[in-house]
Design goal:
Blueprint (H helix, E strand, L loop, with lengths): L1 H27 L32 E10 L2 E2 L3 E2 L18 H18 L4 H5 L2 H13 L6 E9 L9 E6 L3 E2 L3 H8 L1
Antiparallel strand pairs: 1-2, 1-3, 1-4, 4-5, 4-6
Helix pairs in contact: 2-4
Amino acid sequence: MLPDRIKGAAASCAVGVLTAHLVATVLQNTPDSYNQDLRMFTGGWPIPGWRFFAPNPGVQNVHLLVRETTADGPTRWRDVTPVVPHGWTQVLYNPRSRGPKALFDAMQQLSVMSANQADFTWVTRSLPYDLVLAASRAAAVEDAETLQFLLMNVFPSAPPEHRMKPILTSEWIPLATATGAAGAAR
């Protein structure tokens, strides 16, 4: 009889400790305004702390807009930001996410450069600028003579009048056509 009581007490104790640990973990991971440092109450027992995207959570989307000049004049701005489909299979296998992720990272880096008032000449010589320019060229219409791209921050949760903020506008970039490139090579 005594061993059954010991087993029951040990099981109850284990359930209580596990419950306390889970509650402490939830409390430790609440937003900062409600966050309490629970380490003084745990006697040295480590409580996991997750801060996804901290200290700067994502609050905006970066969009790539392109316009060209053709024989008819300049075109309107077009959003050419790659659309990545989301579904349950992407959790397991998503090989098409690497290209858009690389472009997104380059656009984010240009945003950081712009926010830190980097010299435009320095920005245009950077690898992120070259990657965004290559993506813009790939999206250009066939008969385009020149190209210009614009990076735009979009804040979905902001009031409508503060929802969009331009980050970087390129200069007009001449596009070499196949015949023009062949003529230049001669």
